[in-house]
Model the fold of this input.
Amino acid sequence: MTINPLSKEELQTLFDLVEKESYREQRNLLVNIVPFSGLTGSEFRHLRSDWINWGDGEEPIEIKIPRKDTCSPVKYGSGGNSIIEQPEPCPLCKDTAGPDKFTVENEYRERRIHIQESRAKEQLRQWFSHHDYIPVSRPSALLRKLINNSTIDRDVRWIDLRGTYARILADQGFELLDIARWLGYPDQGWASLTMEFKEVLRESETDYTGQIRLKDYYAVLEEHGPMTDKEVAAHVDRTRIHTKRKLVDLEERGWAKDVGERANGPGKHPTLYDSVPDASPTFTCYVCQEEFDTYRGKEKHIDHQHRGQDS
Done:
């Protein structure tokens, strides 16, 4: 299952949406907290004030996820405008035996989560200055409604919100061990992460494992092409799905081309890709003409070096 983090544009779309619908408190809570905390749906549902270490002033906030705890005793009433008591366990806890209905999946999910984004810190302080719990009973259903009411034209799952947190941390250069630990994985570095989260980090601005750039895929095609996506994936040691996306990206940018199919008996034949001769698989700053290996690198450079200079 591929993780598709929210882009900056998609995040801004959600920020704008919840600001227009500020009476829907639960939507504000989801959008302003989860992409900057990596909380699972159950952790978000059961988040409470005594799980939070507030720190001082500008210091990062820490959320302490326990091994187990009671179910949240409140929920939103009909219409979503009032908070009422919930005498029975929530849908996420109803099948759990014992008084401690909330439990984490494994020992690594009992952790401390680093929160540094001002938007998330402000939302947490604002909410928990007046409430003890998050009263959202069905987090995934809330997310679906939110996306359906937005202009985002794709499915966004809860794992994509956790992937957004991972991407934000990676783009900011946080240590791999910290990212793994905050997500709820063993702090053993690269090996502890799932393949899906590895792909998220490979796409970030930080090189954690000898990151493969578009120009590296181009170089493989230039030397060995024509090739199928499976053959290219074997050369760069990446998944076939990930490699296919990169080859399509190269093709759309005019750096690679579809040169037909490899006929190998009956049935569907794999597409062959080859490099476009004399292509330059880099991203050029339109202000100073400096070249970058990644689109994000170019955009980051423009934002930091040429802000306000573009016409």
Remarks:
- The mean pLDDT is 85.
- The longest strand covers residues 256-261.
